[in-house]
Design brief:
The protein has about 450 residues and is an alpha+beta fold. The chain folds into two domains: about 400 residues, FAD/NAD(P)-binding domain; about 35 residues, no CATH class. Helices cover about 30% and strands about 30% of the residues. Strands 3, 4, 5, 6, 11, 12, 13, 14 and 15 form a nine-stranded mixed sheet that branches. Strands 1, 2, 7, 8, 9, 10, 16 and 17 form an eight-stranded mixed sheet that branches. Strand 1, helix 2 and strand 2 form a beta-alpha-beta unit. It binds flavin-adenine dinucleotide. Flavin-adenine dinucleotide (FAD) binds next to helix 2, helix 3, strand 11, strand 15 and helix 9.
Length: about 450
């Protein structure tokens, strides 16, 4: 099912690439990252094209919950311990700057996208997690950030501690993206999938599935998970996680944007749909490729809805993926030290609204060869030795788990014993095919 953001919007059908062309910059990927960068290149009249294999905003950026916040779960105490207080400070400022940059774009372009300032909360109902929240608060105090430590959140569920980030924001992501693409429609090619990238002197040739090639001086891979794996070795430092969302109407509203630091994960925010107040409930994450019962995932979210509200109606259900970086920091910048003039933005850890804006600014500065003070935080060729031994050993464990899960992803299975509500990959006429069995079917 579509998300509510995609249901109520008319994206123009854009041209498909049907001829070879040559340009300064080629962006691969029409999500919020590629689109924000395209908007910035257009403003400076830098020649570029953006290619999208499907329709713009049809993947994660059209299925997000679109909280615009520097509160990325509990991250600042981890950054202080694993890197340094200064690193945590710059990460905070990069994300706070991104909120303001999005606000400025919306104001300058006069975009009607339901942008609203909203407080953001991380909470727990587990007494053992209270210290984690207090440590986060301590780090934020050292950073002079006006976070607030609370005993509970104002929601009809149990909570024993919380931390509030005031004056964060939320918006309708597809209305925002539509306004940006309207500023550079002629530079975009939809239904145009990049299938191969090769070096061409200091630049690149991108082959597309349509048979046309693009020759460019600089290349940006904004495909959420990098499509060219070697020599970047991103598969050793990233994995994909699927999450689920239901959109409900309810008899009461919630004020604020919430996420817990417990398992299972619960994420909440409100929005407006057809003049009705709607609440988005997200969670039920798992590594993409793991065998799960999708219907159970939605049932579990519905159980949360029924525990929070007496009377509710489900309007939409959807799921989507995001890329998770093992060391919790996005990869933004040079694709690899072997690939001069090729850039990447990935590993947003489900905080892609601010991260995509940071990425667009850093990559724009890379392209025009200007220094950006936040580049070092997201260095995509990094192999940082994390100072904190516990965090480092967890990173190694996750890396090994990621490699194993990646292998499982392409395991070919037999569908005879497939249970209802499950999916697998099979081989059909020498092709890999995904199969899903819904809850009505007895046989395939
Ligand atoms: C359930 C959920 C909720 C979330 N909620 C929030 C939130 O509240 N706040 C927040 O900050 N973040 C949130 N996120 C994260 C955020 O949505 C993502 O990080 C962000 O949308 C990623 O944007 P992107 O442009 O990098 O990727 P995408 O939007 O996935 O765009 C990448 C594009 O590249 C295209 N592409 C791929 N391969 C090729 C190819 N070979 N050739 C051409 N095109 C190609 C794809 O079709 C796609 O359109 C959430 C994520 C999930 C899963």
């Amino acid at each position: 099912m579509n998300s509510l953001w995609l249901e109520n919007i008319n994206f123009p059908k854009l041209q498909k690439l049907d001829k070879n062309l040559s340009t300064d910059v080629c962006i691969i990927g029409g999500g919020i990252t590629g689109i924000t960068l395209g908007y910035k290149l257009k403003k400076e009249n830098i020649p570029f094209v953006l290619i999208e294999k499907d329709r713009v905003s049809s993947k994660s950026s059209g299925h997000t919950t679109a909280k615009i916040t520097s509160q990325h779960g509990l991250i600042y105490n981890y950054l202080e311990k694993a890197y340094s207080l200064n690193f945590a400070k710059d990460y905070l400022h990069a994300n706070q700057d991104a909120i303001e940059d999005i606000y400025n774009i919306i104001t300058n372009e006069n975009i009607d996208c339901d942008f609203e300032r909203n407080d953001s909360y991380v909470f727990t109902n587990d007494n053992n997690k209270i210290d984690n929240i207090k440590n986060e608060y301590d780090t934020l105090q050292k950073l002079d950030f006006n976070a607030q430590l609370l005993d509970r959140v104002d929601l009809p569920l149990k909570s024993v501690c919380a931390i509030k980030f005031p004056n964060q924001a939320k918006f309708n992501p597809t209305k925002y993206i539509l306004a940006l693409i309207n500023t550079f429609k002629d530079n975009i090619y939809e239904d145009t999938c990049a299938i191969n990238i090769s070096k061409n002197g200091n630049g690149f040739i991108i082959e597309t599935k349509n048979g046309s090639n693009i020759t460019c001086k600089k290349l940006v891979i904004a495909t959420k998970y990098p499509i060219k794996d070697i020599p970047g070795f991103y598969f050793t430092k990233l994995y994909q996680e699927t999450s689920y969302v239901i959109a409900i109407t309810a008899n009461t509203n919630i004020d604020g944007m919430y996420i817990n630091c417990d398992t299972p994960k619960i994420s909440l925010r409100s929005t407006n749909y057809n003049n009705e107040n709607v609440i988005l409930i997200g969670g039920e994450n798992h590594r993409t490729g793991e065998k799960v019962n999708i219907l159970n995932k939605y049932d579990n979210l519905e159980n949360i809805a029924s525990s929070l509200f007496n009377d509710y109606k489900i309007l939409f259900k959807w799921n989507t993926e995001d890329t998770i970086s093992l060391d919790k920091i996005p990869y933004i910048g040079k694709f690899s030290s072997l690939y001069k003039n090729c850039y990447v933005a990935t590993g947003f850890n489900k905080w892609g609204m601010t991260s995509s804006n940071i990425a667009a600014n850093i990559l724009f500065d890379n392209i025009i060869e200007k220094k950006n003070k936040y580049t070092y935080l997201f260095n995509s060729t990094r192999f940082n030795i994390i100072k904190n031994r516990k965090a480092f050993s967890e990173l190694i464990k996750e890396s090994i788990k990621g490699l194993v899960t990646n292998k499982q992803k392409v395991k070919i299975q037999d569908y005879n014993n497939l249970e209802n509500g499950n999916g697998i990959i099979i081989k059909e006429n020498e092709k890999l095919v995904g199969v899903f069995k819904d809850n009505l079917r007895k046989n395939i």
